[in-house]
Amino acid sequence: MNIPENDLSDMRRKMVIDQLSGRDIKDSKVLDVFEKVPRHRFIDKKFRKDAYADYPLPIDNGQTISQPYMVALMVQLLDIKNTDRVLEIGTGSGYETAILAELAKEVFSVERFKNLTENAGSVLKEIGYGNIRLKTGDGTIGWGEFAPFDKIVVTAAGETVPELLMEQLNSPGKLVMPVGSKFNQRLLLLEKTAKGDVVEKNICSCTFVPLIGRYGWEAGGAGKDI
Questions:
Q1: Phi, psi dihedrals of residue 176, rounded to the nearest 5°
Q2: CA–CA distance, 134 with 108 (Å, rounded to integer)
Q3: Which of 149, 17, 173 is nearest to 89 (CA)?
Q4: In the prediction, which pLDDT does 220 show?
């Protein structure tokens, strides 16, 4: 569907007012970034009229682009500084990757589907981001080559937080991830102190696609793929 850019900008502004600041997203930096990043660029054109709606949308490989509010909540919880190096597990469409890149010094994003990595990389390059590294691989093992990271966000749900991700989190540092069953989870914020202690906060209920990998769910069914 062909929608004029001015109309898309108005839709994006309305999203920020109604779905984000109208709820509990109060960080001005986060709100500014969500008004700037063109979510419609990261989805199929047939869904463009719903680009700024208050729900997830399908992308390739049975994955989704998350509800804008949930992306904003996770980003706000991380409290990203412009000096931070951020690890994202689950590039997906690349939308949240762009949001993170607006706030952080560097973003490292891991996606298990090669076509999603390529598609996201193409859009991110077209928009002009130069502080993002993308990789196709098993997100449950993180990206040790560039660790430690100041912040980590996991955009798929696991039964537990993979230990390797916690090991790759800086001290101090923050990690946000949905944890629970394949169909119902709780969004958790884990804060690692300067001494290496971990404080866990239960934020809210949520539903994400499953985290597949060596320390996540096995592809095609429940259980571990160790």
A1: -120, 135
A2: 6
A3: 149
A4: 53
Record the tokens describing residue 17, joined without a space. 């007012």
Q: In terms of Cα–Cα distance, which of 130, 175, 131 is closest to 149?
A: 175
Residue 36 CB neighbour total at 10 angstroms: 13
| pTM (predicted TM-score) | 0.94
Strand intervals (E) in 12-63: 57-58
Tokens of 182: 């394949």
Residue 28 falls in the annotated catalytic set: no
Exposed, middle or buried by CB within 10 Å (0-12, 13-18, 19+), for 31?
Answer: middle
What are the backbone angles phi and psi of residue 37, rounded to the nearest 5°? Answer: -75, 125
Q: Tens digit of pLDDT for each residue in 196-216?
A: 999 999 999 999 999 999 999
Give the whole-angstrom CA distance, residue 50 versus residue 180. 29
- Cα end-to-end span (Å), the chain: 44
Strand partners, 191: 174, 199
If one counts every other C-beta atom within 10 angstroms of the C-beta of residue 139, the result is 29
Contacts 24+ apart (CB under 8 A), 166-169: 166/190, 166/192, 166/198, 167/142, 168/87, 168/142, 168/143, 168/144
Given the residues 9, 21, 28, 66, the one annotated as active site: 66
**At residue 150, what is the residue type?**
D
